Structure formats: structure tokens, C-alpha cells
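Write out this protein's structure.
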Amino acid sequence: MKNGKNKAGTGRKSARKDAPKPIGDRLLTLQDAAEVLRLSTRTVREYVSRGEIEGRIIGGRWRFRRADLDAFFENAPRKWDFAEKGGDED
């Protein structure tokens, strides 16, 4: 690169690999996130505290990206094993 320009000559540097993800259409509230996942707000907060759902506190309120909720859903096990956690056995 000469004179700070890339090969295309645009003067812009290539995007970094660790660039932040775009926010998208809008951020969801805790209540919105719970409704999307059909969980209680308490359960959503628990998943956040365990690092399973990504969320941020902005202005004193939880905010979520829809893409992060979709990723959580896609990565969730197809069948939950509640027997290990003291659940009822059939």
C-alpha cells in the first residue's frame, strides 16, 4: 500500500476481523426477548448470567439483538434433560 491506499486505490482500509456486529433494525427489551423465546423474563436473565444469551444493559435496561436470540435458539439442544436437575421422571 502506497500513500495509505489499498490495492483498489480507494484510500479505505479493509474491514477488521473483530469489527462489531451491526445492531440491525432495533434492539429488543427484556420483555420482547422473553416473548420471542416464549420464556419468562427471569429465565432470560438466567441465560444471560450463564453467558448463553448475549445481552447488554443500556440506560439501566436490558437490550438484546434479535440475531443473538435466533443464535441461542439454533444452538439450544433439541431435547432438554430435566432428569439430571431433579425433574420428574416418567
